[in-house]
Amino acid sequence: MITVTKKEECCGCTACASICPQECISMKVDEEGFMYPSVNQGKCVNCHICEKVCPIANNDKLNCVTAATINIKEITENAIEKEKILPDCYAAFLKDNNVRNDSTSGGVFTALAEYVLQQHGKVYGVEIAKDNRVVHSCVENMKYLGKYRHSKYVQSDQNGIFKRIKSDLESGRWVLYSGTPCQVAGLLAFLQKNYAALITVDVFCHGVGSPKYWQKYTQYMEKEYSSKIEKVVFREKTYGYNSACLAVYFNNGKSSHKGHDDDYYWSVFSKCLIFRPSCYSCPFKRILHKSDFSIGDYWDNKELGPEFENANGCSLLLVHTEKGKAILKRLTDIIVSEKVELEKALVINGSHQPSMLISSSLLPKGRETIFSDIDTMSMSQLFSKYTPLGKKKQLMCRIKPFLFKLGVLEFAKKIKR
Q: 166: which residues sit within 8 A by CB, 6+ positions away?
C-alpha cells in the first residue's frame, strides 16, 4: 500500500487514490493545508497498484539544481546536455488582444483550449470557486474559458477529476488537461495508456501555495473590505505585463491591486515560504516532460520585433510530442509564434535565477515556523515577520500607480535595482 513517510516525497496528485480498486485511499488535509493519501488498511488487499502509479516513486529524476545556484547559464547548459531529446521551443502569443490581455502571459492556453472545444471536447483547468477554494473543474463551452486563463498560485483540489477524464476519453471525447508537471505526470500514470484524444499542458512551476494560507488570506480580505470576494486575478496586467499584480475584486465594487512586495498572499508565495514540502526538491525539474506542451513566460521579447514587443504578454512554449507539433500547426491562424533557441529562452524565462522548468525553489528560512504562526498571528503580523518592507519598497509600492500613468514605471524599476 502507498505509505508517505516523508512529506517531500508526495506531491498530492491523487493518482493513488483515484486508481485504488477497493477505493480505500482518501486524500486527507494536514496541518499545513496540503492533502496526502490515507489508507483504510481494513479494506486494502495489497494489490500495490497505488505504488505503481505514484509519479514520484517511479520518476527518473535527473538531479536538477535549486534556484540557490547562481551560474544560470551553466545550469541551463547542463540541463540541456542531460536530455537525449529536446523539445521544440517557441515564443508565442494569441492574436486576440482582449483575451491575451486577460491572460497571464501570451494566451496560448486559450488557443489550445478552443481547439479541443471545437472538437466537441472538454477542457479541465484550475479555477477559483465561489467559496474561494482553488479547484480543478471542467468546461465544455468557450464562454467559460476565462476562469482558467490566469495562473493560480495555490495547490488545486483534484477530487475525482482523474476518473472523470478517463470516462470522457473512454467515451471518445477529446480532453485538454492543464496542471502542474506533477499533476500531469500523476494523470498519465493513472490512465496507464496513451489516448490520441488527450492533450496535456503543464506550467513552469515555482511551487504550489498552501490552501490553508490562501483561506486565511481570503477571509482577511473579505473582512478588510467588508464584502465577499467576487473575483481574484493572479498577475493581472494592471501595470503592464512586467509589473503584474494580484487583483482582488469585491461585490461592493471595491478592489485591491497589489504586487509581490505588498500583497499579503503574493509576498509570502514569492518568497517561497508556503510551498508544499515536495516543491523544494521537485523531481520533475527537467526540460523534457511527459506532457504535450509546457507553458511559461518569455519575458524579454523586444528582440523578436515590434509585434512581439507590443503584445503585452508572451508565452514560452515547449512542444514535447509529435501530437503537440501537429496541433500547433493547426493553430497558425490564431497565434503568432517564432522558433527560438532553447538555452537562450530558458535564461530569459529565469531572468535573475535559473528557469523554474529546470530548478526547484530554495527552501527559505522561516518555512519551518510560518505554518505554526498561521494559527496564532494576524495577516499583518505574518507579513511584518516574514516579508517586511523597507522604506524604499514601501514608497515604490505607493507611487507605482502614478509612475505607470506617467509611463516611467519600468524605468523606475531599473533604477531601483
A: 190, 191
